[in-house]
Amino acid sequence: xxxxxxxxxxxxxxxxxxxxxxxxxxxxxxxxxxxxxxxxxxxxxxxxxxxxxxxxxxxxxxxxxxxxxxxxxxxxxxxxxxxxxxxxxxxxxxxxxxxxxxxxxxxxxxxxxxxxxxxxxxxxxxxxxxxxxxxxxxxxxxxxxxxxxxxxxxxxxxxxxxxxxxxxxxxxxxxxxxxxxxxxxxxxxxxxxxxxxxxxxxxxxxxxxxxxxxxxxxxxxxxxxxxxxxxxxxxxxxxxxxxxxxxxxxxxxxxxxxxxxx
Length: 262
Description:
10% of the residues lie in helices and 51% in strands. The longest helix is centred in the first third of the chain and has 13 residues, at 32-44. The two termini are 23 Å apart. 24% of the residues are buried. By secondary structure, it is mainly beta. It has helices at residues 7-16, 32-44, 62-65; strands at 46-55, 58-59, 68-73, 76-81, 84-93, 100-107, 114-122, 125-131, 149-156, 167-174, 180-190, 193-200, 203-213, 216-222, 227-234, 240-246, 254-260.
């Protein structure tokens, strides 16, 4: 994975990873509101369980909420009932209005509607209130009959036994001619998938999307000149040993070792 990616591909990856193209010096001066929104977005990442849910003044039973979860990955959000996907969309925190959140539904009920909401994040508790029709942003965490509002309280889910693989890694690899290479690999969870990028010296080498099943991470990647697939085995210490090959090549495997960056 020595080649660099094209500018268009780099821009696409920046969007997937929640980044943005570089702008002017003024653009890079984050305001207090922007910093707060960025911190809140970061703290929302991961899996949450429903503690309570009330829509138009009617509260859901604890039993009906037992299997329901909500997951934030990047700017994506997914609501599930056990393994069944109920809704999915993208959320945006408004840096100019503290506690304001917009949720655009892309899959499920209210599809193509941007719900206007407010949120409160305290430790491992997240509280939200949305106008499901996107007419007006709620002013308080309250839902009454015929209001079109719902209020939900989520608790951060306990960490699973499997190690979280999101993060930055030092990569050491071997080409088929025996030459060694190094890179920085960044893995971010986006929905049920993972966005993966390889970089060196400030430039992107390759980008990909991965699926995880247990202790196996499979990544389809591409760069300016080729595409391919990499498969890694995830150890308990988050170290990943893998092999990769390119599409249309002669089928030879090369090795890579990813170690969490200290």
